[in-house]
Prior knowledge:
Blueprint: H1 11-39, H2 44-71, H3 74-97, H4 105-132, H5 137-166, H6 168-188, H7 205-225, H8 227-256, H9 262-280, H10 283-290, H11 292-305, H12 309-312, H13 317-349, H14 355-368, H15 370-384, H16 386-396, H17 400-405
Amino acid sequence: MTAPPRRRYGFGALWLGQSLSLAGTQVGMLAIPLVAVVSLGASAGQLGVIGALRYLPFLLFALPLGPLVDRGDRRRLMLIADAARAVLVLVVPVLYAVGRLHLWWLYVVPFLLGIFQVLFDSAYLAFVPQLVGRARLTRANRNLQASQSAADLGGPGLGGLICGAVGAPAALLLDSVSFVCSAVTLALIRPVARQSVEKLPRGSARQTAAAWWQDVRVGLVFVFGQPELRALAIETAVFNACEQGALVLYLVYAVRELGFSPLLLGVSLAAAGVGALIGTFFSEGSARRIGLGPTIVAGSAVGCGAYLLVPAATGSRPAVFAVVCAGFALSGLATGVSNVLQVSLRQTLTPDSLTGRMTASFRFVAYGTVPLGTLAGGALGTAIGLREALWVMSGALLLGPLAIICSPLPRRRALPEPAV
């Protein structure tokens, strides 16, 4: 008697796996800095280096990986990335348990995690349109962004609870398990047929490398040749660099000057997730009422400006905590509305054959500047003080919305017809 064929799943499996993985990642993103600060006594400058190394692979590897995503099996690449990250995250708690954890390990592990995050992200954003089709793209992105927002909401609070109960190193076990869950759900997704995929021409290693870099150039030219994509790339680069620099400062500022416990720190960061989760469900309605472009512009401007509430908070500890949470929540709400529409617009403007390279080019520009932001945040915190540096980094966020205000995007009312 033959065994029944194994059932294959679609977007639901991807959504479940990513929801679990995103929650675990949020715990890990809080646990690693806490290991550095609490267990190893890291300074703001050293924490800035750790953050920079996590994002440096976007600058080094995003562009070369773009052609691989467009020419390869995107689901398989995501599986490889998940498996590698699950193993890497385990390194920190294992070394801590045997008494061999040193600060330089917290430089190496985030850097390697960043390499596989680049691979996963490039394949993931190219795989979603392939899996759901362009007609259901905005709804799919809304659901995935809602999971991201829910992870932002619950992850830091959960991370704070776990770090407070069992310690930050042990909390990283949850992050590792979440990558395993993501890999399992990806393995259950049915294969998705693609249009014919162009292969690299055969020839010498030099000819192959030249063809590969020509592919990379095509992706960059496509992004920067489209005024709307170019503006979104610049806005995202400014936002990510300045936000990560501000967060590096905030983690140290909250623990050392505000006296927040790991739980309060996690809850304050989770406020951004509360706002973003609410914002994702307003994205489609806002685009219909006031237009897609104006919604993106408003979300970007409000989301950046709200960060100024963090260094502005003064008074008693409960009052400071309330104002900081309000700043993160308002920023999350506005960016939650904007991000769903930004991702859908980028994917709709790009043909399937270029989605991987478009995403890689975006990742290169948008995250390649993050190491500069985290290093600048750490250096400013050491040079002028944590709160003063927070004012500088939060104010610099407002430069991002200018890029999209000066582009054709504010005049766009709806998504365009999908590119072929």
